[in-house]
Amino acid sequence: MIYGVTGNTDKDDLWQPVADLVRWFKERSITCRLATPVAEGLAARNLMSAHDANTLATRDVAEATDILLSFGGDGTFLNTAHIVGGRALPILGINIGRLGFLADIEVEQVRQAIEQIEAGRYTIEERMALDVAISSDGTTASEWALNEVVVQRSGTAGLILIEVSVDGATLNTYWADGLIVSTPTGSTAYSLSAGGPIMEPGCGSVLLTPIAAHSLTIRPIVLPDTAVLKVQVRVPELAHVVSVDGHSLVVDRGETSLTIRRAAHTVHLVKTEGSSYYETLRNKLMWGVRKVD
Q1: Which residues are catalytic?
Q2: Which CATH architecture has domain 128-264?
């Protein structure tokens, strides 16, 4: 088994745990590879020799490994998933961020997690993703999302008008700050903050959650993952933003059209023995926790 290591190089908390883990790998004759920015950062901080850094560094860490370790928070995990793309490489998220819902292994537990993997005591969990085709002002782009696609007003612009159809049939017209189209994985992210339901990751569903809709009746809706959604912004004079897993495209003017469907590929997450989605809900989001004075 070859382990790749990548992470958020902007975090000071990254370097020592990764250096310690690399030494631990070496003591146990476990092969690892480091994303080049990580290797260079370790050498620059004198946590690794320049020779070792050059030996372990690889430009495409996802191509050179069997399991990819992502050190950071959930944003880092999403970035790692996009680096992997459709290559079906399993990712283990190690939390050095705040919440760590996708990166659900705490940094203090990483060696125990590796030992479980080496012993074969782990599973691979496949998470659905969304393909999105974006057309705006004569330009087109194709992206995919593990968490969500968001259309929302930009800055202090007024409410935007968003028309949504499902498989060619009109669903709704939203007069709102925006609209979130999320996977079950993304249901605990921005959608949750906007009042959307929590969906177990294995659900074959797509969730539409309006952001501050100017209506007393519009609510989130869950659709099957076979649905093809057409999302159109119908107030061309107002600037708006399209975000895919947190990466934003600002549209200054013009109508925007998005076609969203389930992606052909899935994202593979490593789950160690004993891990539970519901336990993560309780530990990270305090789901059902009742505090008694």
Answers
A1: 74
A2: Sandwich (2.60)
